[in-house]
Amino acid sequence: MHEARAIDGRSLVRRRAGLRLWLSAGWLGLLCVVALFAPWIAPKDPLAQDLFLGRLPPFWMAGAEPGYWLGTDSLGRDVLSRIIHGARVALAVALIAGTITCLVGATLGLLAGFLRGWVDMVISRLIDIWMAFPPVLFSILLIAVLGPGLMSIIIAIVVIDWTRFARVVRAEAMAQGAMDYVASARVAGRGRLGTMMREILPNVLPTIVVLLTLEMGIAVIVEAILSFVNLSISTDDPTWGGMISEGRTSVHQAWWVLVFPLVTLFLTVLAFSQLGEGLKDRFDPVLR
Amino acid sequence: MSFLSIRNLSVRLKKGPPLLRRVSLDVAAGEVRGLVGESGAGKSMIGKAVLGILPPSIEVTGGEILLDGVDLLRLPPALRRRRIGALCALIPQDPLTALNPSHRIGPQITDRLVDILGWTRADADRRARELLAEVQIPDPERVLRSYPHELSGGMRQRILIASAFAAEPKLIVADEPTTALDVTVQKQILKLIAGMQARHGTALLFVTHDLGVVSKVCQHLSVLYAGMVVEDTSVADFFAAPRHAYSAALLAATPKYTDPSAGLIPVPEAVIAAVQAEVAAFDRSLADG
After folding, report:
1. What is the domain-level CATH number for residue B16?
2. Is B105's Cβ below 8 Å from some Cβ in A?
């Protein structure tokens, strides 16, 4: 009786987590496909200007032109095509910057939390110093030094955000390191590296996965912020942040130029965080 | 020649107070020695020092730990690890945190045999099944495929005991192995450890604060206070007539199930003051010379 109820409860948790997982994975998958095949999928050239077709409204409003589904901006460029092309930059930044940040931060956190001693001291002090920098100013400064471009954005995100991983993973590794199974592994003769990889890492992994997906969402936002202040990649290439920035000036005449990239950005960041939560439940042996 | 011989072992918090004060004790092959004392007396610390798992904040300041005649403290770390791994095992205190929640039971027992001791996978698997049967686990096949959270605390402690005996160690440190368990399960587990120890002829260092447990399992015992051995004696002698006043008080403080109305008898203040004075005098004698 008891057992039956427990199983029911578990499957309910799993179903809900499953729905969340599939919705977010679906949106991100769609975005990936769109980004990969942007030139073929986008209905118009994202850079083509046509001043006669400026500020066209989206398709359901009066005055819309066929073919311009989400309207045009003040220079007559197609909003949908620009969002589709903007997905390339957004996803490239999310995946590459997110992954590298995760690798750097999680490795340092794991080493600090498990090895303790002077390694921990050096890494912890580094984290303290790092976190004292205001992140937005720090990134603007970095881009100013490195020069604009996709590479610079990725470097800026990694350099600034590794502490997010390092801090949390360090604390988790430290908690796991105090567990008796770590002592048992050491007694059995497992080396430090082996203990860390086999005993600690699997237990920290669910946390790392959540952080990774959150970081991917954050990377999308950071890219948008940098585009917003005109410090992202070259101004010709469409980015969501750039579109939001441009749309801001004409929001009273043409709200769609601002709103559609904003909604896309919002959904993408939300999808990343939900994907993380869903994956965590999958990874957790107790919930699995 | 005893299998484990600890000579004048001193341990302290780095730049802090001493935790073990020149502890000496011997465990002969196949013998069970109990380590008793209050919380913080240093009984677990001795086991940890022997197994080389002292926390990084604690350092050994002197003494010898002779394991089968070789001083562990003088071995380079890699050799020490290998020697401890080959000869010793640990039965930890809390079965709930002593199994890795991310791995199935089977690999947790067998991977060490394969990775570190070089057994074949088939041998290790066979050994794991044998051991689970020996610790009276029903349906070993299913248990080997389970995750720790799917099993009860008593079951997990049985698995840890099985795992400790897996490589036929010569010495096992049992760190309060029954403290985290239900009273009803405690007795079974104790019986199991005693039975396994006798069958395998393993020396056992049994850390506990329960003198009742000592009387059932151990042959010798060391009573600790503030990291100092105040009495080192055979169990028979101890229960007949403890020599040290503190030991006697500790024995008197054990709740009597035959006479529940007696209530709890604390260790008298005078006895504590005396033993503390003894510790202080010991520290002074060390400082002087």
Report:
1. 3.40.50.300
2. no
